[in-house]
């Protein structure tokens, strides 16, 4: 009977030790779960924040592209107008050079005679 009592007490101690280990494991897992939950919440908040930032940057990029396109067209139109304004001056300059060339050619011909 004494042996049965010792076996029962040893069984009880073993069960208590297992219960203590399982309780400690349960506490550790609970703490890990809490930490992971907190990390998940932080990651989710950061993801949402980054999504908002991406939308804002996308809008600014589209606005910048539209501005660049408008300004590019405006600059092209301005340069075309400048070319049109300078064209008559260039033509008159070319005409003047052509007359000078003809005049020089005839004076060379007269001198050669």
Could you characterize what this model shows?
The protein is mostly helical and 113 residues long. 98% of the residues lie in helices and 0% in strands. It contains one helix and no strands. The protein is rod-shaped, with a radius of gyration of 47 Å. The relative contact order is 0.03. The model has no long low-confidence stretch (mean pLDDT 90).
Report on the biggest sheet.
none
Number of strands: 0
Shape: rod-shaped
Gyration radius, rounded: 47 Å
Please state the average pLDDT score.
90
Instruction: Give the structural class.
Output: mainly alpha
The succession of helices and strands, N to C, reads H
Uncertain residue ranges? none
Number of helices: 1
* Percentage of residues in helical conformation: over 70%
Alpha carbon gap, first and last residue? 155 Å
User: β content, as a range?
Assistant: under 5%
């Amino acid at each position: 009977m004494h042996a049965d009592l010792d076996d029962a007490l040893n069984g009880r101690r073993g069960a208590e030790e297992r219960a203590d280990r399982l309780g400690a494991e349960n506490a550790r897992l609970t703490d890990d779960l809490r930490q992971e939950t907190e990390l998940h919440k932080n990651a989710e908040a950061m993801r949402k924040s980054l999504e908002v930032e991406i939308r804002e940057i996308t809008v600014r990029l589209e606005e910048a592209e539209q501005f660049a396109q408008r300004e590019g067209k405006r600059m092209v139109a301005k340069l075309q107008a400048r070319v049109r304004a300078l064209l008559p001056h260039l033509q008159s300059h070319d005409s003047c050079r052509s007359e000078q060339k003809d005049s020089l050619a005839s004076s060379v011909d007269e001198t050669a005679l």
